[in-house]
Every structure is written in C-alpha cells, then in structure tokens.
Amino acid sequence: MNTSLASFQDAFIDALYERNSTEMTTLIEQPGFLVYRNTVLKGSVDALVANFPTVERLVGTEWIKAAGTVHVRQSPPTDSRLLQYGAGFPDFLNAFEHARELPYLGDVARLDLLWTQVHCAADEPDVDPSELANLSPADLALSRLTPKAACRWAWFPDNPAYTLWRFNREERDIPDELDWRGEGALLTRKQAQVCWQAASVADCTFLDACAAHLPLGQAAEKALEVQPDLDFSELIARLFRADAFASVSIP
C-alpha cells in the first residue's frame, strides 16, 4: 500500500473516532462529516450490542450502548465482519468504572464472545470414540486429542458466570438463591446449533492441555491435579458426546 495513502487512511479513522487528527482539520469542518462520523459510530455500537445480548439483558440497552460508545471510541472495529467485533469488550468491562458493582459482567461477556466464536467456526468432521478404544494403553497415553474450532470452554473461579449467562441467554428468571462459587462452561456446535453445558475445572484443564497438544496421558494428569477424585472415563465420554474433538493423533 502506498505510504501516503496508508497515512491518510489512519488519519481518517482517527478523525472518525474523535482522536487527534490534525491532518484532517479541513475535512472535519465539513458539515457532512459529523453525519458520517455519527453513522459509523452508531453502526459499530449497534454491532457490539447485538454481539453481547446476555450483557444487554443484564444491564439494559441504554447502559450497554453508553458503555459500548466508550469502547468503540477506544477500540474501533478493525474487521469489516462486525459479527466478530468485540474481542476486547470483556476486558474493557472488567476495567470499566461504571461496572465495578458488577464484577461478573466481564465473564458473562466472555461467554457471549465464545458463543459467537463457536457460531462462526468452520465445520469439522466428528471423531469416532472407537479410535481411542482400540488403542493399547501405551499408545493411548501418547495419543493426542485436538479440540474442534467450534469448541470453546472457560473456567470462572470467582463467580457463577455460567449460571448468570445461561439463565439470561435462555431468557429465564435467575434463581432467588444463587450459589456464589466458581463455574465453568463448554460451548460446542451440533447440527449448526450452538450448544452449551456446565464444565468442571477438570474439563477445562483437560481441554487446555489438549489445545496445547499435550499427549493424553499428560493431559489426564493435569486434570487429576485439579480434581483428584475425577472419573476420567466419564470426562472423556462426556466431551465426546459434546462433539468437542476434531481429531485423534495416534503415534
């Protein structure tokens, strides 16, 4: 790209989002530029709100639009596919002064973000569990399970983010008595539908290890470290039922 063109584009974006842009003074003074700026800003905020429906249900439309406007000005979209906009929004909410009384809000936003990632991920074939069942114990320990692109998980040690997210996502009333403890979530896709279920800290630790390409034996050890009473066979069966894996690599 021509350097002068790139400089112009950078300055134009700065002007759009009301950042210092002395090179664009003449353009900014044009009557129509404010209309264009407001249109771009509104479109970005609307996309952000649409991508975080659970957050919107928790805090209300006006609140998330106000927070979204601040976020968009700080971190405007860098991809024309606005369906994927908002990767930094959970961290923004964690640091947002007006969300201090809602310490779980960033984690709920992370689950909305995971939902979108699962929804947009490429299709991959399912793995037949018999590929593991037919291995010798030695080969089983050395084999590797690769999670699908349409498989996302997270463990939230400080709050029941999954319960808060699930009940609001399903538009159900949150129970009056909520057990305030850490929770995990597993999101996958079946027959083009995003599915979700609770996940234990062992589930999430095991999937982290698989994503890091550790052999099955080492991944199992890490899961057992965080949950010594783990029924590993049941964990594997549950993750296969959720269509969590894209491949089995056999030595």
Q: What portion of residues belong to β-strands?
A: 5-15%
Task: Please provide the ordered H/E string of secondary-structure elements.
Answer: HHHHHHHHHEEHEEHHHE
Number of domains: 2
Average pLDDT confidence is: 90
CATH class of the largest domain: Alpha Beta
What is the terminal-to-terminal distance? 46 Å
CATH topology of the largest domain: Outer Surface Protein A, domain 3
Q: Spatial order of the strands in the main sheet?
A: 2-3-4
**Total strands:** 5
Number of continuous helical runs: 13
Biggest β-sheet strands, sense, barrel: 3 strands, antiparallel
Given helix and strand content, the structural type is mainly alpha
| Annotated CATH architecture of the largest domain | Alpha-Beta Complex
Helical content, roughly? 40-55%
Gyration radius, in Å = 22 Å
Name the poorly predicted regions. none
Q: Which word captures the global form?
A: elongated
In short:
The protein has 13 helices and five strands.
Task: Spell out the key features of this protein.
251 residues; mainly alpha; Outer Surface Protein A, domain 3; three-stranded antiparallel sheet; two-stranded antiparallel ribbon; 13 helices; 53% helix; elongated
